[in-house]
Design goal:
The complex is a heterodimer of chains A (253) and B (213). Chain A is 39% helix and 25% strand. Chain A is of the alpha/beta class and 253 residues long. Chain B has one domain: MetI-like (MetI-like fold, Orthogonal Bundle). In chain B, α1 crosses α4. Classes of the chains: A alpha/beta (253), B mainly alpha (213). The complex binds adenosine-5'-diphosphate and magnesium ion. The site of adenosine-5'-diphosphate has 11 residues of chain A, from β2 and α1.
Amino acid sequence: MTNPSATQADAMITLTHVEKWYGAFKALHDVTMSVHQGEKIVLCGPSGSGKSTLIRCINSLEPHQKGEIRVDGIVLGPNAKAIDAIRREVGMVFQQFNLFPHLTVLENCMLAPMRALGLAKSEAESRARALLERVKIAEQAAKYPAQLSGGQQQRVAIARALCMQPKVMLFDEPTSALDPEMVKEVLDTMIGLAEDGMTMICVTHEMGFARQVADRVIFMADGAIVEQAPPAEFFSNPAHERTRKFLGEILNH
Amino acid sequence: MGTDEFVFLLTGLKWTVILSAIAFVCGCLGGLAVALARTSGIKLLERATAAYIGVFQGTPLLMQLFVVYYGLALVGFKIDAWVAVATGLTLHASAYLGEIWRGSIEAVPRGQTEAAKALSLKYVSRMRDVILPQALRVSLPATIGFLVQLIKGTSLASIVGFTELTRAGNMISNQIFQPLTVFGIVGLMYFLLCCPLTIFGAHLERRFAASAR
Ligand SMILES: Nc1ncnc2c1ncn2[C@@H]1O[C@H](COP(=O)(O)OP(=O)(O)O)[C@@H](O)[C@H]1O
Ligand SMILES: [Mg+2]
């Protein structure tokens, strides 16, 4: 049912019996999953089901309390070295963009390669310009984030993450804060990224995107993975009642 | 009042400016350290700096100057009045600026820190490149407001015998028996020092309000 091609050997991300609490509240229940290199995962589920928590544990924005998270062979432990090594390999795009408002678009993209990777300014700049080109926003390089539309800001955020040359990209509802007419430009950027072979985990309710791009759709409820399947199977023949109910709600509105 | 007296007042003014500048510069460094400790997430540091801020915000500046002046003498440091006063004012400024900047660091949205972490920026870079530029910008009007308070606060240094502008005025006034003239001039000097800063602070505040719209 799950993912026959993912063996331990080419697994990019594995979670094994991961549990997470916020104080006394258990947000993740025994989550076990694996994502192999180049695989595209769409993660969906009702609000509060733990989707954000799950992907934020992968790059240690939230600590987990039990189980093992492994990214590209690195085990995520409490030591700063492993956290740093994993964050270098994992890019993240947020619902609210989170661009740095006091820096220009170009500076947003150059900061981390210079500070975290030690790139020279000229090198960071040419890399940033190339990636801004790739998300089709090169002409805005000198502007500040506040001068751009939401869709443009989100594409800059994608370029900024790509400037670190990550092996994995995490997306947390990247189009939820956008006006409807801007959703497509961001999804198109993500589709392009998927076509280039990026390993991706996308939290999204854009089911068209899931059908087109996902190798696998994972459905979560109440902090646990309820079911996972390739999109054709997931949409046409969901195994669980919870999934059917959820699909009914989002596909009908 | 003759030229000699006026020059004496100007010397006092010079010391007021020097004392304010030292206290402000050292207070900025101390205040930055306090603000970073207050937001460090390390319980012990946060509690210690909270207590420090509480003490300095909850007692009169004059008491603080007395305690530093007599306290340091008591534990065997024989120091100049001006070193004691500069130390006292620096401790005072560090507490206030630390509290102002703690507030503005915490006002920077969490998403900024998270984005910086996700980009694998470490603490120093997160603070220097991402958080502090935004926090300090927002706090600039309040910081300038505090600087004005600090300049006026230096007048208390006269009480422990440091000859800044207020004490210079006192001495001249006792010499020539024209207190109203002398203190009128002294007051005008303080005003000319502080007023431009106040106007500048108000200007910045309007500019930020406009850009936040
Ligand atoms: N920082 C937090 N502190 C306490 N509870 C949290 C925190 N973040 C999320 N939660 C709780 O964890 C659950 C899962 O949240 P989240 O991962 O954001 O869900 P989703 O992204 O699927 O909407 C929710 O019940 C939410 O209230
Ligand atoms: Mg969420």
